[in-house]
Amino acid sequence: MTRFRKHGWALAIGIGLLVGLVLGGVWPRARLHATATDRVENFAMATGFVDPDTEAVFYLDYLTGILTGATVSRRGPGLGFQAIYSANVHRDLAAFIQSAGGQPPQSPNYLLVTGSTKLPNTRNMNFGNTIIYVAETNSGVVMAYAVPWSQAAYSANTRINLELIPWAADKFGGAVLRPD
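The structure corresponding to this sequence follows.
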């Protein structure tokens, strides 16, 4: 008992310090990354991280079916967007549905979200850490788009224009959610 009283204060301070560090968020330190999604009438917007330090914004126009994306320039304000992405969701949806023997909806209704992923890089292309999911609610089809990414081009502030890569598509819904 005397031994504990003699050295117990050091143990108590050590445990208190460790608990304080963990509760204070100093150790272990985990980075927090959040994405956002919103929609209004005929437009949807979502964000996703293409690398741990760079976020992209994606915008879907329901009427044209054009999905665009961009990352801002790191070089300073007023320099605009550095990486620009695009895809034709209407075309990709129609191609998928027609390959399955169906008819694409006359008035598509979309949902847009992003997710975090690590796709395998190829010799010709590297991919960002986000994937874009577009669901068409009339048909139940969900499509996934990969984001080409070049950290070297971004660091050099080289403007790039690339197509988003249709990565996957499948029909998840069996019933028509909203008739045309």
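The CA atoms of residues 107 and 180 lie 6 Å apart.
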